[in-house]
Amino acid sequence: MMRETWKNRITALLGCEFPIVSGPMRLITLGRMAASVSNAGGFGVIAASGLTRAELEKELRTARTLTGKPVGVNIPVYRPNAAEALEVAIDMGVKTVYTSAGSPAKMMDRIKAAGLTVIHKVSGLDMARKAASTGVDAVVAMGFEAGGHVGRDAVTTFCLIPVLARALGIPVIASGGIGDARGMLAALVLGAEGVEIGTRLVATRECPVPQFFKDSLCSATGSSTVVLGSQAMPIRVLKNAVTARVAGMDGAEADRAMAAQGDAHYVGDHGNKDTAVMPCGQVAGLVDAIVPVEDLLAGMVDGVRSLVDTMAAMTSGVRP
Ligand SMILES: Cc1cc2nc3c(=O)[nH]c(=O)nc-3n(C[C@H](O)[C@H](O)[C@H](O)COP(=O)(O)O)c2cc1C
Asked: How many alpha carbons lie under 13 Å from residue 226 in its C-beta half-sphere?
């Protein structure tokens, strides 16, 4: 059965059915995961971070074999291989790049010359204005409750989205704290035209993290996360034995200690719930089941529609 498609600036820009973007997650959102999200009607993103040229090409080929729908590539601008990742994306026919962690300005000429769409992750108004002035097509506005690296301004999603929606002429994709239809509708009401989900996607069947990570997320509450690291690199993670040890360190020392844990602890078979650094947002408090990606997205889209009906009924007859 054909799914109904939403029509707004984000679905038009990204070529997806619903304005739901998968948050890039290093070594997690690879070809298979991106294809699952795009096949479910959202916009899947492959994180180029941590991949060699050959690995990124392989993940893009994997995505291409699993879906005929568009997927994007996330390029953290500060990484030394950012320019190379952009060339791979262009060569392999990607239509949208998602830049983050640094100003997109230095890549913009090449991106636009190749005719690509670009979305860029921001966490505050100044950053958003600068990104808009470089010519990005949309911003992903990430609030402080998000999982992973968070903004130094510490502005929450609820306060960030309406400010950016008012200040920018380009569309805003809300990120941070969104894991179901209620969060999605709230973001849309605040002025966003799409949402990004990270933490909620970790607890899906398709997500390639170890079971202990998914289980820890499902048993977490809203206060199970902590922001650690320096002012330069604050990161929100699930509390465990590692974070208890790191919490006593100063910022730079904490950065080093967490980097030393390595990615393998959350993507490989080497870690466990006490030794892994597990990026995770406060929305974990809402997550209590591991579900297929398709069910997650369908539940959000259908849920928004029925919530709109509920809201209309709740507010009917309010005016005299
Ligand atoms: C496990 C995990 C890993 C992440 N890794 C990255 C990353 O490598 N690069 C990045 O830009 N964002 C990363 N993020 C942030 C997500 O892309 C997204 O912005 C964030 O998860 C949205 O907030 P939410 O977790 O409340 O849904 C990560 C998030 C999680 C939960």
From this structure: 15
Residue nearest to ligand 1 atom 11, measured at CA: 24
Residue type, 120: H
Q: What is the pLDDT of residue 265?
A: 58
Residue ranges making up the domain that contains 121: 9-205+289-306
Q: Three-state DSSP class for 234? A: coil
Residue 99 to residue 273: CA distance in whole angstroms:
31
- As for ligand 1, residues whose beta carbon falls within 6 Å of it are 23-26, 28, 47, 49, 100, 121, 142, 145-148, 175-178, 196-200, 202, 279-281, 283
- Specify the pTM: 0.96
Kindly write down the DSSP assignment for every residue of 77-145, as one continuous string.
Answer: TTSTTHHHHHHHHHHTT--EEEEESS-THHHHHHHHHTT-EEEEEESSHHHHHHHHHHT-SEEEEE-TT
Q: Are residues 223 and 198 both part of a single domain?
A: no
Reply yes or no on whether the pLDDT at 269 is more than 70. no
| Ligand 1 atom closest to 199 (CA) | 25
* Residue 31 included in any domain: yes
